Amino acid sequence: MKLLFAASEIFPYAKTGGLADVAQALPAALAKQTDVLSVMPLYDFIDREKFALTSMNESFQITLGKDIYEISLFEGMNRGVRTLFVHEATLCHCITPYGNKNGDYPSNDLRFGIFSKTLVIMAEMFKIDILHLNDWHTALAALWAKEVLPELPVIFTIHNLVFQGLFPRESVERLGLSEHYFTPEGIEFWGKMNCMKAGIAYSDVVTTVSPTYAKEILLPEFGCGLEGFLQVHTSKLHGILNGIDTVLFDPLNDPALTKHYSAEKLSGKKSNKTLFCKAHGLTDADKPLIVFIGRFTEQKGLDIIIEALPKLLAMKLNFAILGDGDETMAETLMSASKNYDNFSILFGYNESLSHRMYAAADLLLMPSRFEPCGLNQLISLRYGTIPIVNDVGGLHDTVRDIDDTDSSICGQGILLSTLSSTAIVKAVKRSLKLFASKKHFSKISKSNMHCNVSFEESSKSYLKLYRKTI
Ligand code: ADP
Q1: What is the CATH number of the domain that holds 291?
Q2: For the chain, does the N or the C end have fewer beta carbons within 10 angstroms?
């Protein structure tokens, strides 16, 4: 079976979030069991030399609407997976995948239309048995595949339903799509073109990244306006839990860490904490260290953390935040950091710093309003950092509340009783109590490190689904 796995970002070439991690780790796990080709755009910011990407001397033209686009293909290897790259000027001329400070690029309809149409040509060119699309950037390929390769099985994965790829009605013509698709059953959404709907409507199978999120998106609270549409397609909807690449996220071998450690030799974790606190101006490294890593958005509950901040920082703990996003949130955090010596705010996207934070921290705070799967809590389990999470989506499927009678169960953390600043303060107080009972804390931390958070099991579920679809 030959699989073409397509995504708009794959680590380490481009990453804005969990999609890139999954688009690297899942194909790597699948490649042990079947023939896999991954594919993504060759954005201008990708260092071709560093990643040893070479031209395949393969170029062709595609047509969208009235215009013709010149495509050329490149290739490289990533964790044992042959990875193909699509180059086209409109698609690839950018400094980040989707936008800049002023918002999303206005040409994203065209950019990802070009990518999606190219995927269908590639499916034919490489004699693919199954096409796996991820998120809205690839979703139009499902529609075009049904037109030109109706026999090709297509599977579409929703990584986050919030990002749907909404564009003005005019995009339909711009992309050369037939008007008959512009209906509520097709890609129309409140007068706009919705790419995500193409993936849902025209794929044979739709998956999302955790069993709980698969149920939640059928409800108005989590369905982002697509709950009714998803209910129509519910018979082809499946939830398969994400994993992480446990070779890349491995405290025993992680090149970002100066001190390595394992569940059997946990003392190195403390050294990471001491180093981190020293480097970031946090005094008294004996205090528990809590971290938040992620996008500054309401999804991640950062606004609620901000509300709880004065009470949190009055406790005997250190708190560090790494991330980027909403400017008002960033400014509030910046000014708070000036008033507290137990709070450090680190702006930007920094892969190795994030690894050092997972290693240094005792606890990870993740009060997401909704969470399709979430990788941070999986990484923190792997690094022996106990997660404090809201009981929602993939967090519900991967973290269970601490069992005082049995510290050997893996995947233990602290669940918020509800989503509020009061509940966060309460949960953090509880975590400090746990931290004070050192033996119990380290027992839980060690059992969490033994959890299987890899893609091993989930890749088997995907394979089963591919075979069934074919
Ligand atoms: P998202 O909704 O953003 O995709 P996930 O939990 O699925 O969230 O995945 C987030 C991934 O991005 C994790 O690998 C996390 O460590 C990483 N990450 C998030 N913010 C940053 C940052 N500022 N610097 C480095 N890595 C980050």
Answers
A1: 3.40.50.2000
A2: C
